[in-house]
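user: At home tonight, take the chain set out below, taking as long as you need, and be ready to discuss the fold:
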Amino acid sequence: MSRCCATTAAAFYALISASAHTGYEATQTSNLLTYRDVGTGPVLLFVHGLLVNGSLWDPAVERLRADHRCIVPDWPLG
């Protein structure tokens, strides 16, 4: 199952730190951050650089999602 949510950076850290996860959306007036959360197992956090977005990691996520929880944020300026 794939989830896409929006949250702040601080709330995002709290989400990925939790042992169990569920899909939901948290919003704040500033610093909105969207991310995808797919798969189950040990957590892998994918980070991209400037001028690209999380879709950069799509091929890797497709191969790893069967055995890992893949979290792919879209950072600002991406």
Remarks:
- Helices lie at 9-17, 58-64.
- Residues 40 and 69 are 4 Å apart (CA to CA).
